[in-house]
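Quick one: co-fold with farnesyl diphosphate.
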Amino acid sequence: MKALLEALKPNDPDRSLALSIDPQRLPAHVAIIMDGNGRWANSRNMPRVAGHKAGIEPVRITVETCARLGIQVLTLYAFSVENWKRPRAEVDTLWRLLRIYLRKELNNLMEHEIQLSAIGRLEGLPIEIQRELHAAEDATASNTGLRVNLAINYGGRAELVDALNVLLDEARDAGRLSELRIDEEAIASRLYTAGLPDPDLLIRTSGEMRISNFLLWQIAYAELYVTETYWPDFRRRDLLEAIVDYQKRERRFGGLKRSELNGKRWSGAVAVPTQ
Ligand code: FPP
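Sure, here it is.
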């Protein structure tokens, strides 16, 4: 948070918004469905790929702002397992833009101690994209700040299928298949996001009210925030507004509101997931 305020000039219009954020109650994990690139381009009579190109700047801004705020994890939905249905030229453009981003941003990632990771069925990606992603992951592996997950060739159902197959393979290899019992921890620890906190805040741009197969397991208790803004127009202010809104929510995790507890037992911690 301090780093964000230092980066803002005294007369920056985002300053008062940033000051209204409680640094003690930041979401640990922010996940974003970056949507509306095509509509942004269409509304300007431009080809869809122009929308994707314009979508790089908000990625850069969002990553840097999350790092400066002190958020622990940011997960960006960049390409879904369903996105292969798009025209070849559009898919190829997305790979080209991803390579440009990785090359141009590496210095910035290092400067802000950002650790980059790719999640999804990465083995299904073009080999040169896999190489570049692994190179960026290796280069940033020992960074200790924000963890950025790029969800690429990602699907929430595919992730669950993969986790369950890992469990089955492990049990089979250990000769314990007949004894296999599965609990929540067994699944969570085999997801692509194993070891990371679940998203507290899920942002979707462009006004669509859908989850689109994103982090299905992990968003069980996430607060949802949908903005009408198309992703290419998403700026620091939009992110700060989402966090301010998030901090107004009362998260109950299946429990009761503070007021409903009526002076009865109150553990002091809201974050008690109940089944
Ligand atoms: C959704 O908009 C966006 C995508 C499928 C791709 C997201 C890619 C970027 C933001 C650019 C590069 C990314 C990185 C990580 C460098 P849409 O095409 O579905 O928009 P529409 O719903 O208006 O058609």
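If it helps, Residues 41 and 47 are 6 Å apart (CA to CA).
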